[in-house]
Every structure is written in C-alpha cells, then in structure tokens.
Design goal:
Oligomer: homodimer
Number of helices of chain A: 20
Cofactor (chains A, B): Mo-molybdopterin cytosine dinucleotide
Shape of chain A: globular
GO molecular function (chains A, B): iron ion binding; oxidoreductase activity
Keywords (chains A, B): Molybdenum, Oxidoreductase, Plasmid
Strand order of the largest sheet of chain A: 3-5-1-12-9-10-11
Protein name (chains A, B): Xanthine dehydrogenase family protein molybdopterin-binding subunit
Strand content of chain A: 15-25%
CATH topology of the largest domain in chain A: Aldehyde Oxidoreductase, domain 4
Number of domains of chain A: 3
Domain Aldehyde oxidase/xanthine dehydrogenase a/b hammerhead (chains A, B): 21-125
Radius of gyration of chain A: 27 Å
Largest interface: A-B, 64 and 63 residues
CATH superfamily of the largest domain in chain A: Aldehyde oxidase/xanthine dehydrogenase, molybdopterin binding domain
Chain lengths: 751, 751
Amino acid sequence: MNETTHLGKRRRIIDGYEKVTGTAHYTADLSLAGMLHARPVLSLYPHARIRSIDAEAARAMPGVVAVLTGPDLNRGRVAHSRPSMLLAEDVVVFAGQPVAVVVATSEAKAADAASLLDIDYEVLEHVEDAEQALQDEVFVWPQGVPVAGGSMASLHGGDAGERGEAKISNIDQSRVFERGDVQAALAQAHAVVERRYTNAWVHQSYMEPHAVVAQPGGRPGQVTVYTSTQGQYAVRSEVARTLGLRERDVRIEPMTVGGGFGAKYGIIDSLVAAVALQVRRPVRMVLSRSEDMLTTMPAPGTRIQVKLGADAEGQLVALDVQVVIENGAFSFGHAGIIATMIGGMYRCANVRIQTQEVLTHRAPTGAYRAPGVPQALFALESSIDELARTLGQDPLDLRYQNAVGAGDLTGTGQPWPDIGFKACLEQARAHPIWRKRGERPNEGVGVAAGGWPGAFSPAGAVCRVDTDGTVRLHVGSVDISGVHSSMVLIAAETLGVDPDTVEIVQGTTDSGPFAPASGGSQITISLSGAVLEASTQVRNQLLDLAAGHFEAHREDVELVEGQARVKGVPGNTIGIGQLAQLSQRQAGGPGPVVAEGRAAIKAGAPGFTVQFVRVHVDPDTALVTPLEAVSIQDVGYALNPLLVEGQMHGGTAQGLSMGMYEGLHFAGGTLTNPNYLEYVFPRASDLPPIEAIIVEHPSEHGPFGARIVGEPPITAGAAAVANAVRDAAGVRVTELPVTSEALWRLMQDRN
Amino acid sequence: MNETTHLGKRRRIIDGYEKVTGTAHYTADLSLAGMLHARPVLSLYPHARIRSIDAEAARAMPGVVAVLTGPDLNRGRVAHSRPSMLLAEDVVVFAGQPVAVVVATSEAKAADAASLLDIDYEVLEHVEDAEQALQDEVFVWPQGVPVAGGSMASLHGGDAGERGEAKISNIDQSRVFERGDVQAALAQAHAVVERRYTNAWVHQSYMEPHAVVAQPGGRPGQVTVYTSTQGQYAVRSEVARTLGLRERDVRIEPMTVGGGFGAKYGIIDSLVAAVALQVRRPVRMVLSRSEDMLTTMPAPGTRIQVKLGADAEGQLVALDVQVVIENGAFSFGHAGIIATMIGGMYRCANVRIQTQEVLTHRAPTGAYRAPGVPQALFALESSIDELARTLGQDPLDLRYQNAVGAGDLTGTGQPWPDIGFKACLEQARAHPIWRKRGERPNEGVGVAAGGWPGAFSPAGAVCRVDTDGTVRLHVGSVDISGVHSSMVLIAAETLGVDPDTVEIVQGTTDSGPFAPASGGSQITISLSGAVLEASTQVRNQLLDLAAGHFEAHREDVELVEGQARVKGVPGNTIGIGQLAQLSQRQAGGPGPVVAEGRAAIKAGAPGFTVQFVRVHVDPDTALVTPLEAVSIQDVGYALNPLLVEGQMHGGTAQGLSMGMYEGLHFAGGTLTNPNYLEYVFPRASDLPPIEAIIVEHPSEHGPFGARIVGEPPITAGAAAVANAVRDAAGVRVTELPVTSEALWRLMQDRN
C-alpha cells in the first residue's frame, strides 16, 4: 500500500451509536399494520409419532386467529434440512422440532393458547448419540434420509463432497481423503502419538434470538421477509425453494443482526413466511432464548482419533485420522472442511482422513464460525503438542519446521496459495509469554495454531455522490462484523473524503446489488473489489466534472477533503456535492454522479493464527483460571486495525470458551440446559485479557493485500487451553470443555 | 425506430393488479411501531392575530401526547412558501392555515382533542381577491413578502423569472415580455379582437389526500419521511431546508401515490417531520378531504386581457396581453410559463405580455398539470376563435397558417425545437367531427390547441439480472402516470426478455439513483436514456457471458425470449438467469450482472395538442351537454400507446372539467366548498367519450423520438368548450367554468 489517509487506520465502527443508544432497529422492533404474533409449539420428545393434536381449547381463546399444524403448511413437501422443516407431520425427529404454530393478536395471547394445545404423542425409541447411531440398530430415518439438490455447507466455503449411495443408515456420509501410504509411514516412524478427542455440542450463542416478520405481498404468492440474517440472497433461495415460490416473489429485507456466527441463514424464515401466506396477514415470530436453543442448529460434537508420526528430525511422516461427526437429524456436511484443515496445517506426505457424518435424534447441526475447525484442531494441535513432548522438541519449533506454505497441500489435496502461517509462528517465538513460560508453579502456557481457507465470491456495489457531498455506497451485504465500516474507508480513501460523509445503503434482495452472505470470512475480500471499482469510477466522474468546471486538464485536478481543486491552486475549490449538483442539473451533461462496480476475487486469501493461553490450575481443586491470552493473526493488510482486533478478540474469546466452558447437555435425547443460567457462557470477567497481534503478510489476491479475518481466531483457542493445562498440570485433556471435575480425575489418576 | 418486439406496443400498466385489488400500500396504510397520530387545527379566518391558544382541555384528554403550536416548532424560522409553513405564529394569513397540531395515540383521540382547542383570534381586515389586492390598501404582508433563495416553479419546468425590488405591496412580481412594437402593429392591423377572460381557482383533486408518516432516525436530527410525493429528492431538500437539517439526515421513502397532478411536492411533510422530531415518536398525519382542500395549494385564478390583431390575409401581427395571476398568500411564479405559451403558440412579430403576480389572503397557490397554461390558452384560443370569425376564416386554417414550428419563438423569446403542432392540425382538419360540424341545431363544435415545453433533467438507473432470470430496474423516480411501465418495455426490448420478467425497484433518497421529480412531463424522457444505457450495458455483459459459455464469438450470440443462443443454433440455449448465476458464482469472473446508466437529455421535446369538443346547448336552460371530444396529440413516439392514451384521456377530462364544472368558491376569504359534495367534479358519466389520436412526429432529442406526454392534453379543453359553446349558442363565454346560469344570461342579452 502507498501512503494512506484513512485505510489501515484505527477508526470506530460506523453503527456503534445506534447500537449503544438502542435506536438500531432489530427484527423484534418491527411492527407492521395488522401484524399478528406467532408462537411455535415444540416437540417434547426426540422421536415420537403424533397421534393427534387437539387445538379446540387454543382456538377458542380470545385473540387467537389460527392454530396451524403440519398438514396446513407442508402441502406434501418433504424437509431435507433444518431450514426446510416447517412443522412436523406424523413423526417428530428431535426434541425442539416445531409441531404447531399458534397465531394471535398479541404474543401473550399466542403463548397462552399454545399452552392449551393437547398433543398426543406415541413415544418411539430414539438415537441418543454417535455411539448408538453407529450401531445402526435404531434409525433416525427408518425410510432413508430425505435429500435435496443443494448443500448448505457450500454457503460457508466448505467442501460438501458427494453423498454416498442411498441406504437405510444413520451414517449419512462416509468419505476418505488419502495421499501416500499412511500405514507404511506409521510403521517406519521414529515417534508416534495417538489419542481420541471428543467435544461437546455448543451453541452459537448470539445475543439476538432468531426473529422473523413475514408479510404477504401485493399479489398471490408474494411475500416479504424481514429477518435477522447473514445473507438475504441465501434466505431468499431457501424460502422460495421450501415454499415452492418463485424467487422473484420472495423479497428479503435484512435487519440489524444481533450476532450470527454462522447460524443466521434463515432457520425459521420459511416457517414464518408460510404462516403469513396462510393467514394473509403480517406475522412476527421472535424465539425465546429457550426455544432458540432447542430448535435452531448448534455446532456438532466430534470424536476424532489422531495417529501422528514423525521421523527423528521432527519431520511429520504420517497422519491418520478418523472423524465421527455427531449430527442431529440432518448433517450439515462438516467433513470436507474438517479434512481440509486437519490435514492441511502441516506438510506430510502420508495422510489418511476418514470421516463419517452420523445422525441422531437431536436438532440438526449447522455452521458456527469456522465450522468444525476448532474441534478438528483441538485434536490435531493437542497431538502436535504431545508429539513435541515425545520428541523432546519445542512445540513452536516443531510447528515451524512442518508448517505449510505456498504450494503445500490442504487435507483435501488442494495447494495453498501464499500464506502467513510461518510469519505468525515467527512472531510467536519472539513473544515474552513464550520466552518466560515455566517460571511460575501451577501455571502453564499452551500454544496452538489455526486457520481458515476462506470462501470468496463475486459481488457488486453502487457508489453515488449526493448534492450535499454525501457519498452513498449501496451494497447487498449484511454487516455482522464491521465489514461496512471498512467499505466506508475504501470509498473515503478513493474519493478523498472524510469517512463520516460516506453512508452505507443496505440493499434488499430487490434493490441489490448482489453480494455473498457474510459467512465463511468472505465478505470483506469479496466486496472490497466492487466498492473500489465503483468508487474509482465515481472518482473519475468527479475529476471530469471538476476539470470542466475549472477549465483545466483532468490530470491537473485532485480531490482533497471532499473538495476538487487544481493542483497547486489550493484556494480555489469546489465541493464534490456541488459537482454532483451541477451534474444533476446540467441538461446535456453526463448525468448524475453514480457508478456500479462488479468484481470477482481471483482466488482465496487464507488466514492463519497462532495463539497462546496462560492458565493457572489449582492443584487441589483442578480449577483452571485463564490468566492471559495472546492471539497472533496474519490478516494480510488490516483495512481498519481496530475492527480487526475486535474480530480477533471475539473469536479468541469463543475459542477459549469452547475450551473451558461451553457445552449443550442432553439427557434422554432432550437438551437439558437451553438457557443462559445453565448453559455455561463466560462473562467478560471469566475471560483473561487478550492481546491481539496483527501480522501483515499480504495476500496476492485479497484487496490491498487483505486476507480473511473472521474465522481464524476461533480455531486455536480450545487446543491452546488443553495444551496450557497439559503444561500446568501435566495431564492431557482429550474432552472439551475442560471441566474441573474431569481434570481433577485425570490429575488423581496421574498421582 | 426499427422493428420492435415490445416497445411501441399496447401493454397494460405494471401496477394495475395491486391498485385494483387494494393491496397497493399507500402512506395511510403505514403503521409503525409506537406510531402516534396527528391532527392539524386549521385557521377559521383568512387574516387574524392569534391572541392565545388554550390547550389545557385538549392536553387533559386521555391518549393525547402533545399539543404543539407555532413556537414549539418554528424556532424562529420564517416561512416563505406553503411547504415551509409549519404552524402559524402570531398571525394567520389564510383560512385553512395550520395553527396547531394535536398528537395522540389514535386518530380519533387526536381529532377529539383538537376540537377542544380554544384559540382566541383577533380578526383582521383581509384581502379577498385580485381586484382588492391590486388596490394595495389592505396588505397581505404588511411587513413585506417573506422570500427565500429557491423557487418552486423551477421544479415544474417553468421560468421563475426575477423578483422585483422589495416593497410593501400585494403585487408580488411584475414582468414584461416584449418583442416588436405592439402599439404600432395594433394600430395598423386589419382586424383586432379584444376581450378579458377570467377563471375560477380549481383544485388538483387527486383521489388520495396528502398523507405523511415521519419517523425520527437513529441519531439526533435524523428523520425518515414516508410520503405520497411526486419527487423524493425535492421533498428531501424542502424538509432539510425548512427544518435546518442536513440533507443526508433526511430520508424520504416515496409511497404509492393516489394522484399528484403537481400538488405532491411535500406540502405537509416538513410539518409532520417537525412534529415527529419534537415528540420523538413516529407520527402519521392523513388529511381529511376538507382539510386537504383548505390547506394545500390549489391552482390560481387569472384575469387575462387579450388584444389580438391580424392583417387581411390572416397573418397575426400583434398580441397584447395583460395577465393578473390571483395567488394566495404566496405566489408560485406562474407568470413565466403563462407568457411562454400564450405568446408562443403562433408566429407574431409584435408581442407584449405584462404579468402581475398578486397576493390575497387565501391558501398559497401551486402547480396543477401544465400550471397556468389551461387558463392562458383559454384566453388565447378563445381570441383566435373570435379572430377567425372576424376575418371570416376557418379557425383551423387560421391556426395552421400561424402555428409555430422549429425556430419560431416562445412568448419569452426562446426558439422552439422541431415540434409537431402543424402535424396535429393536419390530423385535425381531416377529422369527421370537424368536417361534419354545423349539421345539427343547438350543437356546436369547438377547437382549441395547446402544448407544453416540458422540462428535462439528468437521471440515473441501475439494471441487474437475478439468478432466476428476473431483470430489476432500480430507479429514483416516482410513478404517477405509468412511466415505470414504459421503462420496463425499454429494458425488455434491449435485453430480449418478456416485460413480465422485468421488475421495478423503487429507490428512496438513500438508495437512489437520482432521478428528477415526476412533474413537468419530464420523467419519461429524462429517465429513458439512463434505463437504456444501463440495459445496454447489461446486454453486453450477458453476451460476453454467453459467448464464454458457448465458446463462440460475441457477435454470433443473440438474446431471445430470456435465453442466450448462438445465431442459427436455436436448440442450444441458456437462460439469462443461469448466466447471472454462473457469473455470481464464478471466482475470478467478471462479477454479478449489474450496470448503471446515467444520462442527461440534450434538449426538450415539447408536445402539442389539438382538441375538439362537440356540445349541445339547451336554448331554454343553457344546459351544456358535452357529446364528444377528440384529443389529437403529438407524442413523438408512443413507447406504450395504451398508457399514452390513458394520459390523453385523463388530461383531456381535466381540461373539459375546468371548462365546464370546477371552481373553488370563496366567501369572506374562506373556501365554502371544500368537499366533493359541493366542489363540482365530473363523474365518468358527466364526461363525453374521448377519442385519443396519437401523432408521432419524432423528437430529435427524446428517447426513440418520444416527446413529453403528460401535460399537453389538459391545456386545450377549457378553450375548446368555450369555442364549442360559441358555435352552438352564438355567445362568447369569457369566464370559467361555463355555468348554465352565466351562459343563460349571455344568451338572454344577445336575444
């Protein structure tokens, strides 16, 4: 980058004021004329047959407009994924599955009536967990797993792979990714470590539960959906497909999002749209926290067996991995991305990764920031740590020696482009937390690496200058992570204006322009090119107008601080708003100042991270206290370092939390802690200070050299916690989260 | 035009379904969360001092949130036009001026409380009409007329002219437009006719009264205004200027408009925005019919003295006109456009037009479809008719002989571009209604000509193709006359798609792109170029994508019926939606299919009309029954003849109505017929069948040769009625509307 005025500088987020003062409009704030309120009735059982639903008492309640059940909405359509599930019909397959919807004139009336619904279930034997599922004795889908054309995983940049042939089994999909000869390499290895790692299901735990308002349109089959989503185009496709509507008849209006983390791709949107079309009134459904945790799509549990071999010099020679992904009633297709990363962090000639997606009678799982990778790297990075101990090598040195670089392969055999993994490791080696480790008793420092390949997609943007000098950027992206704050800087830098004069216009599916969903860490790198192109065209239009105004050559005109002027004549200026006004009024002129940019990034810009955690482990109680965390991440180029650090802090906190606190508990197939009293979720005071260290190893493909940012920081924290506990307490934890009880038992076993 | 598939073909309007079925969303349908309702309290007196306002009882009513008066909202700002008037403070200047606003939780509560307001007025002497105003004894503005920088007339394509020097007078502005030596020419003329013509004030009589919802934004000073308007950008400027806000903080969302006709430029928008900002809640104000007629901006009365001289061959030699425009408390600046047309229909070397804009204590006047021209041409075309009688010439021949063409001058001295006035007259001469006139007793046929120069402004548009093949046109224009239906045809023609697959996306002031307001007949010709450019770019993008897909040369690819194919290989096609999908997904590709067009039309494309009316006049009662009307209009090129005819029917009906029915009645300075029971407004059965004959004399500047359409058809009807009555009854009516009572008296006088 050349010298910049705004780009690369720390600048506060553009929508902070609204969020802090409470004036931001969330979906639950929306109230439309004639709007009704819907409450879902969720199944109490993980697997049961619905014998009958008696809605008479509910329907008789004052204010109740409708009680809808499966036959009212499904119209024979078969669900093949969580978002395509409307209401259960005949059989429920998870506790938390919507069985009925009560629609009333107020939310309270709907809730009261919902409690009067009398549903007669015949409880069926259910599949509790992966172990039971793998026995293939009781089946989640005795008639076979419903399938459809699309794959949701592709939304998140994962590799969905090919489905196996149809058979009645709980094993939804088995895949093998292999290169070299793992068996032979392991047999000849100087050192081999082997362990099995498991982790709890966790929930994305966004602040704002799922909330949707759907409004029938002006013509039959038209519907507008106001929703808390990460990607309006993805939701439009989903709603249209699920309800059999034309895409053009489905209008999605993305609202302010109170946290997404991969979960906000329209889980209840089709249901609410179907209800609104049925009752021909606007309908709002806002899930309660418990409903949200019961009926949405959490992150899956995994059981990962790792066998890792190295030669005497510490060169990895074999990696043999077996992955069981414990899904709910539908799998999300995590296998591809797990394989990509678990087999793609370190150079290794002989790799075999076997994956099984298995189904249970639980809520279908979904995406959670870097889906599957924290789990995968918990296994891999713990194994690397153990291998270093076996070899007597420094774990950072071992990583550096084997770390992948440009041209090395991912676990699925694709070559990496130029990446900054080693640059992060170099920063890590110099950090005091590492150099001073081992100085205090009962304390340990753990290190772990992580990363994410990142998706990338074409995107469009429209830029215009208004008569008061305001620059408007019209984009079809959703801002869940500050991405629009960076787009503002790109436009401000290009046009020579104060970033405060650049406003974002949020596109709906109708107004566009198209942008991919804000997931897979792709939105900044995908959108930047379009914004840059649109801004550059607008810059050229302004220079042309100014050249005409000053009767000067265009090359002699410059844009500085919202003004155009002839170089060397700083006193004589014209505001860009005045130029826009001239252009808007000039008959026969070039027309309003507006331009569209369209761009498709050429290739991905993967991001890597190395993280440290320092913990204290109480030798008597095994209480783990995190003392300090360091998150080092290659972001290529930090468009706005303040926001990049925010992403690093947030992701690191979530990784640590997966390591130390979070877990959904199931008993008898039912989630037993669907609330924030019982689901252990760290407060700010439960987390250590996190130091964010930005590494800028420019990407050749990302805009201005920028790389993906959002997902890498979550990928290493859980493994770093486990390695820190190993360092402090001398025992290897193989199950997440690291509870004091389990750790204490391990410490007792060692003694 | 080459051979077309969609352009130039009759096709129904795109939003007819919603309007007919009642699902279109008008402003009054809008209900926002926490929204309050506002009722205005209007002055009962044309001129009075407000001694005090006792709001105690109103404030005590349940549900009343606020009672606001002038000092609450005006903040020292002085109004200089009707839209900038918030609430009266100290003095009221017209009966109907808002004095207070009551805000309550329901409209009924606000109305009830409003009736309890106790306002103590000191009634002041008022200026009743133009005659009294011209005496300059009682003054509308004893301290001088408040002024501001801008001129509203410029919105409508009129010539605002220069204001005279400041003095205390009811004559707001006097202008003289002169060429040649009128006095001398009149003295030497072979024949001279002279008469004085007057007309009543009329109201625009849109179906939907003014309605505004204003909602405070997320930050102080931000406001969103949902409004029934013809132009969101004009309203934004008005609201920002009136309330002292930054333009970027004012967001205007244009709603479906139930009729505008020049009146929907934000009359109460600033007031409602001020109220919403004051109470910090969304506020809706929907005027009742009576309030709307009392407090908005009707069309002015005029008194026009015409002296017209010709030589023995029928060549016009002198036109001497004195125009008094009777405004309310503010003038709108009609003088320029009246002079343009009254002195611009016929070639004449010696012209003098003297205009006076005078003020009275009535509601400030405003624009009504071709503002001022029906009044002006009532005077001119009646005079031409009389001149023909005096000369013994056929009135159509006299018009043809003198009609202006390219290079001839308007009344303000500008040369006309190539126009189709004579082409219309040629059509008229051949029409049976003219050739068969005089065949039946007590019937008469009148002819009159009209026209409108038309405004033109730069505009932008964005076109994109969606993955399901839907083409979206994003425009900043408001559709009050079917203009968007024509834009759809332009895009469909350019892209080779079914017009039903083209959707319009309505831009707000934020999302843009900029377009001028839908007034001055300019929107179709101003917007078409931008839509054509955007569509053409998208066409090129699609051809590139298809060429890549088929591995063919781009020149060999064609777009037909929504599909791309290689010429000569009709079997192998790919839908444009699929091309868009490929492009949206292709990493490294060109990006989404989207393009912006920006265009500024080079010069105007004026439109002319010739109209016939056949009437029966009862010799005993003087009842005038319209039997038949013919409206011949040069539209250059009819983009959609069905909609052009709709414009011609509507405008002709309004012109006939001004001739025969409509008039606001004032007594004691107060409007006495502010409702549709007493304001005579024709039902469909009161109007004759109207034959619309389209003449296509292509404009060199308008898109595809198209000319302005909306305003010409209203300009000739009133004069045609007067000339028909002259033909049937033998008397010259010089006052509009032609009432039976006045006509009977004239007929009595003649006998």
